[in-house]
């Protein structure tokens, strides 16, 4: 039998969940086709083969183990006695990476699985989601698996050279795959940010309503293409750009073309309170706008000012608040040399599976998967699809 590549993924599952195995393999197929990963599960065993030896050999050569966890999975004596022990032993002694996917609600807390990284939020098992949500979740799971298969610095012949220079970008987003207390965050590093309707000219889209719901088309039409402008030059301020629906700060309507200073805690309203944004401001570093109503997905809009920095952690001054940790300072994001940079603090930080030393400044690039303490996020250049950056 030919040697199996070191990037092989071993999938362990209950035969009661065979349909979920099919769905996962379908989502991983583009990576398999390109040769980026090799996936093994027991459907590879031919009737004439000695299945127990085949499974043992596949377990011994796995780089990443993916467990499809359900009540049937946890109830399987074969999985508990034959598959899990060598996987857990290899994870402890040989660096095997274990990821698990909550298929259906189960009592995983009473097993060793609880210690390992879930590739999807256990509070929302895949079977509890609607079909569209399931596909979105499987896309994110596939990205986590791909990142886990990337060679680590210790596996490479030479350690990966640090990337001190960032990839040029003035807009980006952090799409959180793990870390339920943190919403998707959009990053901007520009002197001015245009707020308006979904057009390429707008940096921040104000009108994101499901158009099949009553009155939403009318509400969307009340937003102008260039509705308002936020400036982060000498001080944070906002200007209504002679919009159709109007802009208010703390209930006071702005006069078109006139600048209004922004302060910490201010409430910005658009189009008769159809949309409201709460201001959180650290004057010398950043400004954050939180959507507080009518949002299909809660989002933070974070504007870094010049070479200002934004801390991720549980402290009061953190721009990206993370309540799932006791650490005040997990990592620091900044905008330097035309792009976004992350600096690790006391908490381990990995980028695409490779650790960075505390204090090391590393430029972020399109598609990077970054793990910081309890958080896992994907860095995507461009605030919105189609945006021109750099």
From TrEMBL:
<dbReference type="InterPro" id="IPR035897">
    <property type="entry name" value="Toll_tir_struct_dom_sf"/>
</dbReference>
<feature type="domain" description="TIR">
    <location>
        <begin position="5"/>
        <end position="149"/>
    </location>
</feature>
<protein>
    <submittedName>
        <fullName>TIR protein</fullName>
    </submittedName>
</protein>
<dbReference type="InterPro" id="IPR008984">
    <property type="entry name" value="SMAD_FHA_dom_sf"/>
</dbReference>
<dbReference type="InterPro" id="IPR000157">
    <property type="entry name" value="TIR_dom"/>
</dbReference>
<dbReference type="Pfam" id="PF13676">
    <property type="entry name" value="TIR_2"/>
</dbReference>
<dbReference type="GO" id="GO:0007165">
    <property type="term" value="P:signal transduction"/>
</dbReference>
<dbReference type="InterPro" id="IPR000253">
    <property type="entry name" value="FHA_dom"/>
</dbReference>
<dbReference type="Pfam" id="PF00498">
    <property type="entry name" value="FHA"/>
</dbReference>
<feature type="domain" description="FHA">
    <location>
        <begin position="193"/>
        <end position="254"/>
    </location>
</feature>
């Amino acid at each position: 039998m030919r040697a199996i590549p070191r990037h092989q993924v071993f999938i362990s599952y209950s035969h009661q969940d065979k349909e979920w195995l099919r769905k996962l393999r379908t989502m991983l197929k583009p990576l398999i086709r390109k040769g980026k990963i090799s996936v093994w599960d027991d459907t590879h065993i031919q009737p004439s083969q000695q299945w127990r030896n085949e499974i043992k050999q596949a377990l011994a050569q796995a780089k990443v183990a993916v467990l499809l966890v359900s009540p049937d999975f946890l109830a399987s004596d074969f999985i508990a006695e034959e598959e899990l022990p060598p996987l857990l032993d290899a994870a402890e002694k040989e660096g095997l990476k274990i990821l698990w996917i909550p298929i259906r609600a189960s009592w995983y807390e009473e097993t060793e699985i609880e210690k390992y990284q879930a590739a999807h939020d256990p509070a929302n098992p895949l079977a509890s989601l609607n079909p569209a949500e399931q596909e979105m979740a499987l896309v994110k799971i596939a990205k986590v698996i791909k990142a886990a298969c990337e060679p680590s610095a210790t596996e490479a012949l030479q350690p990966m050279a640090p990337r001190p220079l960032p990839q040029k970008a003035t807009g980006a987003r952090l799409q959180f795959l793990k870390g339920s207390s943190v919403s998707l965050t959009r990053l901007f590093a520009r002197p001015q940010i245009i707020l308006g309707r979904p057009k390429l000219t707008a940096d921040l889209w104000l009108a994101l309503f499901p158009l099949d719901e009553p009155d939403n088309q009318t509400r969307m039409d009340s937003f102008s293409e260039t509705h308002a402008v936020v400036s982060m030059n000498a001080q944070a301020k906002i200007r209504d750009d002679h919009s159709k629906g109007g802009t208010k700060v703390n209930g006071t309507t702005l006069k078109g073309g006139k600048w209004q200073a922004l302060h910490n805690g201010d409430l910005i309203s658009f189009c008769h309170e159809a949309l409201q944004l709460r201001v959180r401001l650290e004057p010398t570093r950043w400004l954050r706008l939180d959507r507080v109503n009518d949002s299909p997905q809660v989002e933070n809009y974070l504007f870094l000012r010049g070479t200002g920095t934004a801390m991720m952690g549980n402290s009061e001054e953190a721009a990206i608040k993370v309540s799932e940790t006791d650490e005040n300072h997990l990592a620091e994001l900044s905008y330097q040399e035309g792009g976004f940079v992350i600096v690790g603090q006391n908490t381990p930080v990995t980028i695409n599976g490779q650790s960075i030393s505390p204090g090391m400044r590393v430029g972020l690039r399109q598609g990077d998967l970054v793990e910081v303490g309890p958080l896992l996020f994907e860095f995507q250049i461009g605030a919105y699809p189609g945006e021109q950056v750099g």
